[in-house]
């Protein structure tokens, strides 16, 4: 049932183009706009929402961090993102016009479920983004948008994450459509770009051999850092989490802008640092800043592993290893930039002889607090 792959994780990484396409399926009308009636929130309810709080754990939380950029940029609604385990033990200011979006692959994560209950007790509406039909979290929520990743067996989340991103983009765009914060043709344009991402992900998957080789060469390292900015920051966090859980290595993700506020002190001769570079066109200013970060850390001895858009030649002189991803609109970059990091972690863990499908100490769904 691993379909010819050595591990479920490899199979699930390979399934990502299909998973993304399936999550879009049936949600785009002939006019190129979204039809999300399945969400069970009326247009009036969507117009009344004045704040969104996204709540999740682990990898799903990283999807939430990316959702914030899309929701604020496209829909113009203030958005906060919080870990479920923190959200429920503070006193968030929630009203009927706050939408709490919970993201959970399994639909059974106890902390996230408790956050749903906490939000509903305060009369907020809850929208669940979930991969398992009829699981507890969607059952207890007001509305649900299912991801169609198919069953995810490997403990480390891969295809579910990419489909969560798609669902988040759809929610942000749907708000923009209903509230009129973007013109219809802009929305259909973005949706058309989104519909192209399965083939972009396919392209990434076809060029992973050098990434595997690189991963194997780093199997004896003790620590790997990950840097990113804008939507590349949560991608860096996700890359670090994958490496921790699979390779049992110290791995940490930072916002590249924070480097000089502390983390740069960690840079030492030979330390591998993965940098997720924003698009030079879509993110001109942050791109420039991150290129100088790469120069700074390299001057201090870091081994720079750079993930950059095809055609971005500015990074070439400073990259010890260069991983190319196709150019896509800035907000969609996580859909392509995360994939090499999944492959990297999986291969590095395999090189160390670890069971990538069943990492030590971890369970697929965390049904205790
Ligand atoms: C990481 C991973 C976990 C889950 C987290 C939330 O690879 O799988 O961090 O993302 O336990 O699980 P769900 O999404 O099922 O609520």
From TrEMBL:
- Organism in which the protein naturally occurs: Streptosporangium carneum
Cite the record's note on assembly.
Homodimer.
* Statement: the UniProt record of this protein carries the keyword Repeat: yes
Q: Name one GO cellular component term.
A: cytosol
The EC number of this protein is 2.6.1.16
**GO annotations under biological process?**
carbohydrate metabolic process; fructose 6-phosphate metabolic process; protein N-linked glycosylation; UDP-N-acetylglucosamine metabolic process
In this protein, which residues make up the domain named SIS?
Answer: 42-181, 214-359
* Top class in the EC scheme: transferase
Query: What is the name attached to this protein's record?
Result: Glutamine--fructose-6-phosphate aminotransferase [isomerizing]
Molecular function GO terms recorded = carbohydrate derivative binding; glutamine-fructose-6-phosphate transaminase (isomerizing) activity
Where would you find this protein in the cell?
Cytoplasm
Note whether NAD occurs among the keywords.
Answer: no
Role this protein plays: Catalyzes the first step in hexosamine metabolism, converting fructose-6P into glucosamine-6P using glutamine as a nitrogen source.
Q: What is its main location?
A: cytoplasm
Active-site residues, Swiss-Prot/TrEMBL: 364
Q: Which UniProt keywords apply?
A: Aminotransferase, Cytoplasm, Glutamine amidotransferase, Repeat, Transferase
Report the portion of the entire protein shown: 246 to 614 of 614
Catalyzed reactions per annotation: D-fructose 6-phosphate + L-glutamine = D-glucosamine 6-phosphate + L-glutamate
């Amino acid at each position: 049932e691993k379909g010819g792959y050595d591990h479920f994780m490899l199979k699930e990484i390979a399934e990502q183009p299909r998973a993304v396409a399936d999550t879009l399926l049936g949600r785009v009308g002939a006019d190129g706009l979204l039809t999300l009636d399945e969400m069970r929130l009326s247009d009036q309810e969507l117009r009344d929402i004045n704040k969104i709080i996204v709540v999740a754990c682990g990898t799903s939380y990283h999807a939430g961090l990316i959702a914030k950029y899309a929701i604020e940029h496209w829909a113009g609604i203030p958005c906060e993102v919080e870990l479920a385990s923190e959200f429920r033990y503070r006193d968030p200011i929630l009203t009927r016009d706050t939408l709490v979006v919970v993201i959970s692959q399994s639909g059974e994560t106890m902390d996230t479920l408790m956050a749903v209950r906490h939000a509903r007790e305060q009369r907020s509406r809850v929208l669940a983004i979930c991969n398992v039909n009829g699981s507890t979290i969607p059952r207890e929520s007001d509305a649900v948008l299912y991801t169609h990743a198919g069953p995810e067996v490997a403990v480390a989340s891969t295809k579910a994450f990419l489909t969560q991103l798609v669902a988040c983009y759809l929610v942000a765009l749907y708000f923009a459509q209903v509230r009129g914060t973007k013109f219809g043709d802009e929305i259909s344009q973005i949706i058309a770009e989104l519909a192209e991402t399965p083939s972009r992900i396919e392209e990434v998957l076809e060029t992973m051999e050098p990434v595997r080789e690189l991963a194997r060469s780093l199997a004896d390292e003790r620590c790997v850092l990950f840097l990113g900015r804008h939507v590349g920051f949560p991608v860096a966090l996700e890359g670090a989490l994958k490496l921790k859980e699979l390779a049992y290595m110290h791995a940490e993700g930072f916002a590249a802008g924070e480097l000089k506020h502390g983390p740069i002190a960690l840079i030492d001769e030979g330390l591998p640092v993965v940098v997720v570079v924003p698009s030079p066109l879509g993110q001109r200013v942050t791109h420039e800043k991150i290129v100088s970060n790469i120069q700074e850390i390299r001057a201090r001895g870091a081994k720079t592993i750079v993930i950059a858009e095809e055609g971005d030649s500015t990074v070439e002189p400073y990259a010890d290893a260069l991983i190319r991803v196709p150019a896509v609109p800035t907000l969609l970059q996580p859909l392509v930039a995360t994939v090499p990091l999944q492959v990297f972690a999986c291969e590095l863990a395999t090189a160390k002889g670890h069971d990538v499908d069943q990492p030590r100490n971890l369970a697929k769904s965390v049904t205790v607090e």
